[in-house]
Amino acid sequence: MKLANNLTLDNILASIKSSYKQKFSKQQIKELIEGYKEGAEIRAYADPSISDLIMCSLRYSLLEFGNPNNYEDFRKRIVKYINDGYHKGQVTELANGLLTGVNVSLYEDLSLNRFAMSIIRKNLERGVDVSLYTRESFYVSQVEEIAAGLRHNLDVSCYANKDFTTQQMRLIRIGLEEGLDAKQYADPTLNEYEMNCRLDELRHPIIIGGSHL
Q: CB neighbours of 114 closer than 8 A, spacing ≥ 6?
């Protein structure tokens, strides 16, 4: 089998092995061979300092998101992340961000776990930055409500508060999306039923003598 540039697997492996003093393990070679067979740009993760487990994750990332435009730059970034102390899950999420073209500097943070990184990355792909809220320990469901508001260019400041439940946030967001003055019921001391009643009142105001109540 050959890559688009007509380099055979043997030629690529020989070139890769000659570039490093450190030897590749059998498992690492296996990951390179598997990646080649699947059409991945194996030079993007062909470095003996990248464990076979991380190689495997990177291989799947390349298959899902496509090969990097510059495999050397990509590989160097991956090696740097590993040397900086990022673990496998974190490295994978950073790699995914590099492949999808988002600003990975917004979640290049050792204190963020893979799950938090994934939330930030996926929302960056949708065009919104929720890194601030993820770092402030909002629940995932709360972050998604904030992200939904940001995607609709809403003023999320009135409900980007950890004191609100996810459902309370949703009711405020819905009111804002409908062009209502949702700040009237953006109060965490109101329960969800009370908020819903306030929302309905704003949707259907009672008119007496030409004035809205």
A: 87, 89, 90, 92, 93
